[in-house]
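An instance follows:
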Amino acid sequence: MLKWILQKIVGNKNQREVKRMNPIVAKINEIEEALQTEPEATVLAKVTEWQRHLHRYLPLDAPTKRTIEAMDSEALSGFSEILEARLGSLRGDYPSLP
């Protein structure tokens, strides 16, 4: 009886979760409506920018330390350029990066 009364007042876990997500869903719906009115080229440009931004956070396929130590200078400079490009894209968000 007490559990039933508490669920009616507070709600069960699913109801509380739905209530918590309502503002997020409303914001997503606003963004969707705004994107519906924009031209397709603008939306595609934004998608490309979002993909570029999110791609920076994918795992870096770096070789092991032993493999790096065994690399010749040409392969090492190639890996260094890849690593520098990846760190360069993150420096704006994380200024303490080397």
The first helix runs from residue 2 to 10. The chain has five helices and no strands. The chain has a mean pLDDT of 87.
